[in-house]
Amino acid sequence: MEVLLDPRTVNSRKVLAGLKLIGADYSIRKFDYFQAEQKSEEFVKINPNAAFPALVDGDFTLWESNAILQYMQQRK
């Protein structure tokens, strides 16, 4: 699983804290909020809302921090 985020954003930090708390196995792909990289074509293909964070698990994608945390807890 890969989490796409900018660790400077509140919701990205919330996801990182939650994943660390549950001991989830994941990788991170960083994007720069201040360079508007969340609006790039690459990111918008994953999250049409163009907001951090997002999750890619194989062919499955998910966004919004609470949804990501719930998914990761159930998958753990």
Spatial gap, N to C terminus: 11 Å
CATH architecture: 3-Layer(aba) Sandwich
Count of folded domains: 1
- What structural class do the secondary elements suggest? alpha+beta
Your description of this structure?
The protein has one domain (2-75): Glutaredoxin, CATH 3.40.30.10. It is 39% helix and 21% strand. It has three helices and four strands. Helix 1 runs parallel beside helix 3. The longest helix has 13 residues, at 10-22. It is globular. The chain starts with a strand and ends with a helix.
Would you kindly provide a brief summary of this structure?
With 76 residues, the chain is an alpha+beta fold. It has helices at 10-22, 41-46, 65-75; strands at 2-5, 27-30, 54-57, 60-63.
Keywords:
alpha+beta, 76 residues, four-stranded mixed sheet, globular, Glutaredoxin, 21% strand
Sequence-ordered SSE layout with sheet pairings:
Blueprint: E1 2-5, H1 10-22, E2 27-30, H2 41-46, E3 54-57, E4 60-63, H3 65-75
Parallel strand pairs: 1-2
Antiparallel strand pairs: 1-3, 3-4
Helix pairs in contact: 1-3
